[in-house]
Structure formats: C-alpha cells, structure tokens
C-alpha cells in the first residue's frame, strides 16, 4: 500500500446461487512499506451481512478497498500494489489473474495498470537525503521488489456519500420475457435487441418470449411486466458495491413479487418456501383471496352496490337523455319551421338537431367517464376495509380494461344515438303546413 498510512482492507462482493449478495472482507489490512498476504474467507458464516447457508456456487461480482480504520468515514487517495490473485479450495490453488484481466473492469475512478515489480522498492528508496545515490542492485534485491510485473490500483479520495471505486465484472445483455401488450406497444418481436428499463437503469437485452397472462398486485397501467434471470437483474440493478466496512450494507433493488400459475397450489407453495428458512415471504393465492373477500359482507355489499348503481345509472341516463331530447326539440318548433321554410327536408332537419344533441351528449359522456374513473379510484380504499377495519392484502388496485370499457361505451353510445334519432325524428316528422303555422304565431 503506497497511500493511506493506516492501511486499507480488501473487500469483495459475491452472489450465491439464491441471488443473495455476500460481502466479505480480508483478514488483514494492507499496510504501508511491506507485502502481505490477505485471505478472504468466503464461507457463509464469514460474510459481513450474513451468516448465510453454504450451498451451491458463488460468483465474484466486484472487489474494492476500504479504509481499515472503522472509525473513519473517508478514504485517502493512494496506490495499492497487488502481486497475484489466487483461489484456494479443497481441489487446490487456481489463479484468478486471467479472469480478472479479461472479465473485470475498473469503475468509479479506480485505475488499474501493470507496473514493474520494482515499483515498491523504488518508491521506498526514493525517500533518501538529497545527494545520496542508491545502487540499482539494492533496489532490485530489496524484499519489496518482485522479479515480474505487478498490478497497481490507483484509487481516489472519497467520503461515505460518494460512489465506491471498484473492479467489477461487466454485466452481460439480459434475456427478457416481456408482457405481450408492452411488446406490441414498443413494436418488439421475439429476437429483437433493444434497451430495457427497470430499477432506474437501462440495460441492453434481447426479447426471447412473451407473457400472455400475468396477475400482479402492482399497477400495470404504465409499466409492462418483464421476466429476467435474478442474477442478471441484480447485476444491472445494483452494479456498484456499497460502503460496507465502516457502516451497514445498503439496501439492494430486488423484485417484490413472484407469481406462479399451477394446478397444485399446496405443493408449489411448499417448494417455493423450502429455501426461505424461518422468515418466508407473504403468500397469496387467487382461490384463498377470493374466499377471504367473499366471506366479508362489507366488501361484497359494496361491490353489489357498485354493480346495481352502474346498471341503474345506465337506465336512468337513457331515460333522461330521451326525455331531454324530446323536451329540447319540442321547444324549438319555430326553428324547425324556419329551416323547413328555407327548403330543408324532414331528414335534414332531424339530422341537424340530432347532430347538435349528440355533440352535447358526447362532451358530457367524456366528462362523465373521466369523472367516473376518478370517483372509482377514490372508492377503492373503501373496498379494502375488513370487518374490523383491516385492509385486504394484497391491496386492491384499479386497472381500467380499455377493451371492455370501449365495448361498454359503444353499447351505451349506440343506445343514446338511437334515443336521440328517434326523438328528433318523431318531432321533425310533422307536416310542412303545421310547421309554417307554428312559425306565423
């Protein structure tokens, strides 16, 4: 270590086969003025944010250094010389040099370079009185010297609020299974390569399949459902390590739902929960939630009121529109007479007044639909009240099915048009002589 006098400690972040991050630290710090072998125990019990169960494989994601003093909140700029990287296992000792050089890159201000093996001894003997000449043999024969090139890390100063300079693997493009409606909206087909956004990041990937049915407790109005591998997701969502020696490990971004369609609900739930130990996640099933909802009379009553109110509203709207058009048209006999006197035919008069009423009713319908959706959003929380004022879990969210809404509006609009045309036609079908006498009054 050619920088901080109190030493730096090597840190590593790994991902296990369950997609969990493990933070490990070396058993000793790199001090100034000497070489030292630092060991990282990768067992689950040794993880700073553990313990974890040891099962399956581990994937090294990133390595970095922290100030060794846990009381310090900053890292002083400096250089660290690294002779070699090795993995020690029951199978023997393997070198990591080639893998780190090919697959890992420096991030957030860290600089990695290859320097002569005499860099440490040259730096040590450079601090001599002026005029004193150090023989080259002393530099090359020094215990600080190596007879081969070594790796130098040059890291900047930083405080706790700044990104961590690190050496990490570059995440690969992701393979995505996408909600079919979202894929259609984006103009994507299977095999297309594009950039996908999730967890606040943009990641290149390939569309490899569609999702046709995805139940979710989230709000799907603006975001399409997307399925990717957990390790790929976490690599892109949490690329840089957090400050983890002088503080706690920061929260990482993870998906918050997993939905499974199965005919064996109990067996599937047991299989999913088998690996979670003492703190399993919350589990909801469509059958169980439907039964819980139907057993609560408050929710059932409110839903029934909404359906009855909707039906009654449609009937009353049709009756009100018919009555309104009849009254509005009958009050305008004189205008009809003038139009007929000017040469308009009955059909033209009926069409003129029908178009006028349809424009008025159309504007009202648009306002009514918008107000209805807004009112429904306000009423959703009342549907979630349990018998003891407990909320339903998962919380109900409102999703506007545009296809069904369009069919409903088309039916209602058709009935309104028929009502308007029938009303105006019945009034405009009067004889011309009757209309002219009305004008003379």
Major beta-sheet overview: 5 strands, antiparallel
Strand order in space, largest sheet: 2-1-3-12-8
Low-confidence stretches: none
Radius of gyration: 37 Å
- Count of distinct strands: 16
Gross morphology is: elongated
Spell out the helices and strands N to C: EEEEEEEHEEHHEEEEHEEEHHHHHHHH
Q: Mean pLDDT, as a whole number?
A: 75
| Separation, N- and C-terminal Cα atoms | 108 Å
What class, by secondary structure content? alpha+beta
Helix run count: 12
Give the % helix. 25-40%
Strand percent estimate:
15-25%
Q: What does this protein look like?
A:
With 441 residues, the protein is an alpha+beta fold. Helices cover 39% and strands 19% of the residues. The chain has helices at 97-103, 119-125, 136-141, 180-186, 230-237, 265-273, 286-294, 297-330, 333-341, 346-383, 402-428, 432-440, and strands spanning 8-16, 21-25, 58-67, 74-75, 78-82, 86-89, 92-95, 104-107, 111-115, 150-155, 158-159, 166-169, 174-179, 193-198, 201-211, 226-227. Helix 8 (297-330) runs antiparallel to helix 10 and helix 10 runs antiparallel to helix 11. The chain is elongated and about 130 Å long. The chain starts with 7 loop residues before the first strand and ends with a helix.
């Amino acid at each position: 270590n050619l920088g901080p006098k109190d030493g730096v400690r090597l840190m590593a972040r790994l991902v296990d086969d369950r997609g969990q991050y493990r933070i490990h630290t070396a058993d000793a710090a790199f001090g100034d003025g000497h070489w030292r072998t630092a060991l990282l125990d990768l067992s689950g019990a040794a993880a700073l944010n553990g313990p974890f169960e040891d099962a399956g494989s581990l994937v090294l994601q990133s390595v970095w250094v922290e100030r060794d003093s846990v009381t310090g909140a900053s890292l002083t700029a400096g250089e660290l010389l690294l002779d070699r990287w090795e993995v020690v296992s029951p199978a023997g000792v393997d070198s990591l040099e080639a893998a780190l050089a090919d697959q890992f890159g420096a991030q957030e201000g860290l600089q990695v370079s290859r320097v002569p093996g005499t860099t440490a001894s040259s730096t040590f003997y450079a601090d001599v009185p002026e005029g004193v000449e150090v023989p080259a043999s002393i530099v090359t024969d020094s215990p600080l010297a190596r007879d081969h090139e070594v790796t130098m890390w040059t890291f900047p100063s930083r405080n706790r609020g700044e990104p961590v300079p690190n050496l990490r693997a570059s995440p690969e493009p992701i393979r995505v299974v996408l909600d079919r409606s979202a894929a259609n909206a984006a103009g994507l087909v299977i095999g297309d390569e594009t950039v996908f956004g999730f967890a606040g990041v943009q990641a290149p990937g390939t569309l490899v399949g569609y999702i046709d049915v995805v139940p979710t407790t989230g709000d799907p109005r603006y975001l399409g459902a997307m399925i990717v591998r957990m390790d790929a997701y976490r690599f892109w969502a949490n690329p840089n390590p957090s400050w983890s020696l002088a503080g706690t490990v920061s929260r990482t971004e993870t998906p918050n739902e997993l939905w499974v369609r199965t005919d064996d609900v109990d067996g599937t739930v047991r299989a999913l929960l088998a690996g979670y130990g003492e703190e399993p996640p919350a589990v909801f099933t469509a059958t169980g939630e439907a039964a819980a909802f139907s057993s609560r009379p408050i929710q059932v009553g409110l839903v029934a009121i909404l359906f009855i109110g909707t039906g009654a509203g449609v009937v009353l709207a049709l009756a009100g529109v018919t009555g309104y058009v009849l009254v509005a048209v009958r009050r305008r006999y004189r205008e009809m007479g003038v139009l007929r006197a000017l040469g308009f035919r009955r059909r033209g008069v009926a069409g003129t007044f029908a178009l006028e009423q349809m424009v008025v009713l159309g504007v009202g319908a648009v306002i009514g639909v918008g107000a209805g959706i807004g009112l429904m959003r306000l009423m959703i929380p009342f549907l979630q009240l349990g018998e003891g004022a407990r909320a339903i879990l998962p919380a109900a969210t409102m999703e506007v099915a545009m296809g069904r809404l369009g069919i409903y509006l088309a039916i209602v609009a058709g009935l309104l048009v028929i009502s308007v045309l029938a009303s105006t036609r019945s009034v405009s079908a009067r004889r011309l002589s009757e209309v002219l006498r009305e004008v003379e009054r």
